[in-house]
Amino acid sequence: MSHAQQRYEALVRAYTPDLYRYAYWLCHSKSIAEDLVQDTLLRAWKNLSQLQEAKAAKAWLLTILRHENARRFERKQFEYSDVEQDSLEDLHQSPEQSVATDRLHRLILGLPQDYREPLVMQLLLGMTGDEIATVLQLNLNTVNTRLFRGRAQLRARLQPEAAGVPSHG
Amino acid sequence: MDKLSLRRALYEDPRSVSAEELLDQPQLQQLQQELQALDDNLRQQLAIEVPPQLVERVLLNQRMLPMQKRWYQRPLPYATAAALLVSVLYWQQPLQNGPTDLGQHALSHVYHEMAALRAEALLSQADISPMFSQLGIHAEFPVPVRYARFCDFDGVRSLHLVLDIDGAAVTLFVVPGSAQPGLITPEQIEPAQFADARFFGQAVTKLQHRLVLVAEQPQLLAATSAMLEKSLRFNI
Fold it and tell me: Do B138 and B34 sit in the same domain of this protein?
């Protein structure tokens, strides 16, 4: 097996789960998420020489995936009729747990994408504000404002009787 | 940091504020706890289940990549082999009946993706249904599906599946005719057969779609065709 092939396989095994989950929260569909991951990793293979440092791999792959998602909209090839069914799948839970997690799942999906994306990067992928800013091509203050507003909206919607969304931000 | 800045910092990242900074701020301490609990719930919810075998499918597609080049982009031995295959198919014209282009393309596609015939992943109904629904088809297979992927089939984005029929691999291409006006011509409405030295195939038209089957044993085509009649419902 060539060195490039070994390097690529290590990359695929390390990052496929995170890429798939990130793609799902980006496009709301499991089948489209899988296509996005396939397209992202095939493009990564073709451009593997561009990746110089292992620590840059996650941000590099996420950038490719976001470009592939943008290309998807340009091609207008996909349909969205299966979004609801995809997003509501939940397994092995009691009815009470299921209702609670369905609600949180819907609330995450209901967040504006500008707020959802940095939250997913921070909570799911463990990225710092600076790393998120690099991938999203934003400054750190904007990323922090979006994290603030995303959490505030979720908290307010989960506790409608509470004080509500903080106005500062 | 003043109270407002601390509050903002907590919403940006609850873990970024230390307990010392909140010593005299019971309301903010409670807010930190609530936000950390919210983050825990969000992390659980965000970590959706990853399809089994996804890594293997990615690696399979990557390994097949060099073989997806056009024949004229390949080294001479490959071009020679491609020319030989075309010749063999030409001299086997009596075996064929109908759209030779479609049959030749199906056979070439199968040869190019031989690894798909050896795929062992068992895909679930939940994996398959969304792919078919993109083509306006409802599918419910009583047999295992080992491979499913959208492919370029002669310039048309089509579904490529490998079904397990009594332990043997049968390839099914679902080619949406509506994606390429003129793909389905009047003479292609009738069922057509094709074959080469190894594989047998048949193509049938269902509303706007061409269903192309390829198998190593001809009797598998009839069995699969009968199964598809009951398993597929065409909405468009």
Answer: no
d(CA A86, CA A84): 5
Give me the count of residues in chain B.
236
**CATH code where residue A7 lies:** 1.10.1740.10
Nearest CA in chain A to B34: A155
- In the structure, how many helices (H) and strands (E) does chain B have? 8, 8
**Domain termination site, one of A43, A69, A89:** A89
Q: Which residues does chain B have within 8 Å of residue A75's beta carbon, measured at their own beta carbons?
A: none
| Strands annotated E in chain B | 137-139, 145-153, 156-165, 168-176, 192-195, 200-206, 209-215, 232-234
Looking at this predicted complex, what is its ipTM? 0.80
**A122 and A71 Cβ atoms separated by less than 8 Å:** no
Give the bridge partners for B205, in sequence order.
Answer: B210
Q: How far is A153 from chain B (nearest CA, A)?
A: 10
Q: How many domains does chain A have?
A: 2
Q: Could you report the per-residue pLDDT of B183-221, keeping only the tens digit for each?
A: 555 555 566 788 877 788 888 888 778 899 999 888 888
Q: What are B152-176's pLDDT values in tens digits? A: 887 788 999 999 988 889 999 998 8
CB of B125 within 8 Å of any CB in chain A?
Answer: no
For residue A107, pLDDT beyond 60? yes
Quote the domain boundaries for residue B151.
54-234
Interface subset of B 139-168, CB within 8 angstroms of A: 149-150, 157
Q: Which of A131, A132, A124, A116 has its CA nearest to residue A15?
A: A124
Domain carrying residue A69: 1-89
Q: Same domain for B78 and B36?
A: no
| B193/B217 same-domain check | yes
CB contact under 8 A, A81 and B157: no
Residue B62 contacts A, CB cutoff 8 Å? yes
Is A103 within a domain?
yes
